[in-house]
């Protein structure tokens, strides 16, 4: 499955966050840029590193009029624990049926330790205030994702 095309409207979604409240992508239109990042599973080492990096650059993101939304197939109860334990300062959204991950082309066949299974391919989408997809990040390490993201955002005309 392919990622949505840069320049097109980002696929819409409305999902529950860690507070069991609905978050709708369209609510940010004309107001904020949105970083939509997909991660495989809350509280795993790589996902924790990535989330904490995003937590730590909040001030820089605010200067760029940008909010972060993290999506995973985790249930809301797991998101609450992850947010509380890591003191995260952005919304995590539950995509339990992976319908949104499929819309974004990140639900793919993965291989790990000789086993094949379907899961999230770690990917970040930058959505402009106009609701259009501005950039896709899919080649990064979890420990430098935040810096790659800031550099990319700084180079885009949002």
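-> sequence recovered:
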């Amino acid at each position: 499955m392919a990622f949505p095309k840069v320049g097109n409207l980002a696929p819409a979604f409305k999902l529950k966050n860690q507070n069991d409240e609905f978050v709708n992508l369209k609510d940010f239109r004309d107001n904020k840029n949105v970083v939509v990042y997909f991660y495989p599973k809350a509280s795993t080492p790589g996902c924790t590193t990535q989330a904490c990096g995003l937590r730590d650059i909040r001030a820089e993101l605010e200067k760029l009029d940008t909010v972060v939304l993290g999506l995973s197939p985790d249930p809301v109860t797991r998101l609450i624990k992850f947010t509380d334990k890591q003191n995260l300062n952005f919304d995590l959204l539950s995509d339990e049926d992976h319908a949104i991950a499929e819309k974004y082309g990140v639900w793919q066949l993965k291989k790990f330790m000789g086993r094949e299974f379907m899961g999230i391919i770690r990917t970040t989408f930058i959505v402009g205030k106009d609701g259009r997809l501005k950039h896709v990040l899919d080649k990064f390490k979890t420990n430098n994702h935040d810096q790659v993201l800031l550099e990319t955002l700084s180079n885009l005309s949002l």
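The chain has a mean pLDDT of 96.
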